[in-house]
């Protein structure tokens, strides 16, 4: 299996997992709790980013220790201010989301992503609402119906085709007999 195909499979699996998790959480605990969880996750990410920024600031201060104190203070203040800015955090999150969407679409295409998301959402909602047993039963019934309909269509088409061929052959033979009889009489 080539590397691009592996990447596409991984991307699809990641999309499926994310959609399943989000849908299950929304269905089980509601939109409000889901939003609260997302907010908490964002806050944690922001805290981690700020911690990383502090480390970076310390490293920057160490690197520019020979520079004038004013430059060090301005750089540190600017970095800390940016790290605490909600706008910057929102921009970073938006950029990450855009990058993820672009990568996913580039890997598997818009159609595949939409189909996967829709199918997963429908299946997960059905499973959560009616249970696994009912979902499996519905899937089995649908598969059986599809198979039966397909077989019926194939059989009917074959029977109709054979019937048409037989009728055409009979007509052709009858026409030939009529022509032969006329030519014999004449």
What can you tell me about this protein's structure?
It is found in: Cell membrane. Keywords: Cell membrane, Membrane, Transmembrane, Transmembrane helix, Transport. It is a multi-pass membrane protein. This protein is mainly α and 186 residues long. The longest helix has 61 residues, at 3-63. The chain is built from five helices and no strands. Helix 1 packs across helix 2, helix 1 (3-63) crosses helix 4 (110-130) and helix 3 (86-108) crosses helix 4 (110-130). The mean pLDDT is 68.
Number of domains: 2
Distance between the termini: 75 Å
The profile of the biggest β sheet is: none
Task: Give the integer mean of the pLDDT values.
Answer: 68
GO molecular function: amino acid:sodium symporter activity
GO cellular component, one term: plasma membrane
Protein name: ABC transmembrane type-1 domain-containing protein
InterPro entries: MetI-like (IPR000515), Na/Ala_symport (IPR001463)
In short:
The protein has 5 helices and no strands.
In terms of topology, how is this protein built?
Blueprint: H1 3-63, H2 69-83, H3 86-108, H4 110-130, H5 132-185
Helix pairs in contact: 1-2, 1-3, 1-4, 3-4, 4-5
InterPro entries: MetI-like, Na/Ala_symport
Keywords: Cell membrane, Membrane, Transmembrane, Transmembrane helix, Transport
Transmembrane segments: 9-29, 35-64, 71-104, 110-129, 136-156, 162-185
């Amino acid at each position: 299996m080539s590397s691009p195909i592996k990447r596409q499979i991984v991307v699809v699996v990641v999309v499926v997992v994310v959609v399943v998790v989000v849908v299950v959480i929304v269905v089980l605990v509601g939109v409000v709790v889901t939003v609260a969880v997302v907010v908490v996750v964002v806050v944690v990410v922001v805290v981690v980013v700020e911690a990383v920024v502090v480390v970076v600031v310390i490293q920057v201060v160490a690197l520019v220790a020979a520079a004038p104190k004013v430059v060090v203070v301005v750089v540190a203040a600017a970095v800390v201010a940016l790290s605490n800015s909600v706008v910057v955090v929102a921009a970073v999150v938006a950029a990450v989301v855009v990058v993820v969407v672009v990568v996913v679409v580039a890997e598997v295409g818009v159609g595949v992503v939409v189909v996967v998301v829709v199918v997963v959402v429908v299946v997960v909602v059905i499973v959560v609402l009616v249970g696994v047993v009912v979902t499996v039963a519905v899937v089995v019934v649908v598969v059986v119906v599809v198979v039966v309909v397909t077989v019926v269509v194939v059989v009917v088409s074959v029977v109709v085709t054979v019937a048409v061929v037989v009728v055409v052959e009979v007509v052709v033979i009858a026409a030939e007999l009529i022509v032969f009889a006329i030519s014999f009489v004449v």
